[in-house]
Specification:
The complex is a heterodimer of chains A (320) and B (255). Chain A is an all-alpha fold and 320 residues long. Chain A has 13 helices and 2 strands; from the N terminus they run ααββααααααααααα. Chain A has helices at 36-60, 70-73, 87-117, 122-136, 140-159, 161-167, 170-180, 186-214, 217-225, 230-245, 247-260, 272-283, 286-319, and strands at 74-76, 83-85. In chain A, α3 (87-117) packs antiparallel against α4 and α12 (272-283) runs antiparallel to α13. Chain A is globular. The mean pLDDT of chain A is 87. Chain B has helices at residues 6-11, 53-59, 82-91, 107-118, 123-136, 152-164, 182-197, 209-215, 233-238, 243-253, and strands at 15-24, 27-37, 42-46, 68-73, 76-77, 92-95, 170-174, 201-205, 218-223, 226-231. In chain B, β7, α7 and β8 (201-205) form a beta-alpha-beta unit. In chain B, α5 packs across α6. The N and C termini of chain B lie far apart (49 Å). The model of chain B is unreliable at 1-9 (pLDDT under 50). The chains are: A mainly alpha (320), B alpha/beta (255). Chain A binds chain B through residues 218-219, 221-229, 232, 236-237, 240-241, 244, 318-320, and chain B through 61, 63, 86, 89-90, 92-94, 96, 98, 100-104, 113-114, 117-119, 146, 148-149, 162-163, 166.
Chain lengths: 320, 255
Amino acid sequence: MNASALPSCMMLPSTASARPDASRPPPSRRRRRLTRTDAVLATMALALITFVVWQTHTVLDYRWNWSSIWPFVLKTDPTTGRLEPNLIITGLVTTLRLAVWGILLSGAIGIAMGLARTSKRLLPRLIGGSYVMLIRNIPPVVFVFIFFYFIASQITPALGLADRIRDAGPAARWLLSVLFGDVRLIENFVIGLLCLSFFTGAYVTEIVRAGIQSVSRQQIEAGESLGLSKGDVMRFVIFPQAARNVLPPMAGQFIQLIKDSSLVSLVSIQELSFMAQDVQVSTQRVFEVLIFVAAIYFVICFGLSRVFEWLERRAAVAYR
Amino acid sequence: MSPQPTASATTQPIIEMCGVNKWFGQFQVLKDIDLDVSRGERVVVCGPSGSGKSTLIRCLNRLEEHDEGRIVIDGTVLDDDTRHIAAVRREVGMVFQQFNLFPHLTVLDNCVLAQVRARKTPRAEAEQRAMSYLERVRIPEQAGKFPGQLSGGQQQRVAIARSLCMEPKIMLFDEPTSALDPEMIKEVLDVMGDLAQSGMTMICVTHEMGFARKVADTMVFMDGGRIIESSPPAAFFSSPTSERTRQFLNQILSH
């Protein structure tokens, strides 16, 4: 096409007219990192934050005293003079144990129930469906209490954990204490863990189900036509694709699990927020402790979300 | 499955369909289908959309269940017995309109997976076989890529190689070129032509009449769930017996 026939606004710079078929580098784009609108919005946000902080400062009339919570993070042992972890660190470690085991266990429950829910047979579908329906439709706090008073009291003797731990050798006790914390509290910890995992498992079940159903029917047909067994189709065709698809909601659910782990403090599992209440009582510094503990939760959850972002990037690379 | 005496193996059809009926809900998709295919025969199935062509060939590896009638594949009766279904699927390869490659696996792994899992082939041997079939479909250099990095034509050729890796006795093609851009259709048809030359038993649902004329031993025309006509291509194209076939051919050959 003749360039002069084009309206002037569509005419290309003169360099392009030399060889129309040769590809040329893209036009340099002005990269504006910050526009005026951004600057205005940022200023407004900053102003709002300043206002709120200033208001709380004047209206609340609260004397901040951060130094009094440090002894509850680390304490000095009176006999040896060495620094030792105190309530907040101990609680934090329990929360981390709850998080790691909770993610593994609720993930396992979620996969099992998700498979049940997508089963062709009626009975597994009913079981999976009832599980999700029961747990998802009652408030978590109520579930924690019901689980603790009605279900845990039957699980505990059935497991017979206390006896077994008492009979365990020193090496086994050491391993148990690394994995689950103080051996005297393991029974208590396991109840809290089961409660949290059953509760989160219901949501994970739904994510797993969505993931399995997100893989197209044709992928299953391709696998089956190649002679793969149903189990192999699930394991090698559907599951890897489903796992990629559900990474974002799964990240959200596991972050939720970490925050929900504070619920089991209601039944005396001595994790971070349980300890935080203790410290609040001891120091009378309510806000400092709350904010400090919130910051700890933030760091853990933010770290986990970064892990999932990395997983997502890695999964995307594998596709193309 | 007991091995068959060789005499009958050569004379007996490798695919027998007898009085096959199938319904989707209230709608009858297949009506009294009788079709025999002998070893090495190349059958092209054509007909208007919704005539039951795809359903017909999907019944042959039990991706669809037939409700009535009898289907026997190489001596194995297709019924609810999962061992029979597994045996048939080992003998029957299928190529789909949408390729259906596994997007999370490389081209090579797409070809290796079923060999290792379903045939228990050692991985090294499976890879070797995969490469030889990728060479046969003329894309060995793409073995390390993911399906999403290939063109449609290349993906379909990988899908053909993936099926061939299982060394099937029968290949089913369900509109293998319908999802392809025009310039990629030829590369896929060429590969299918090579395969036909090698003596593979093939049933192919396609609208590519040029390919059909060149390759087919038998043309099957379906409409409304019935096989209306079944004849060698020469007779089929020059003097179709049914009015409906003539209409259909006029429509698709007119341009």
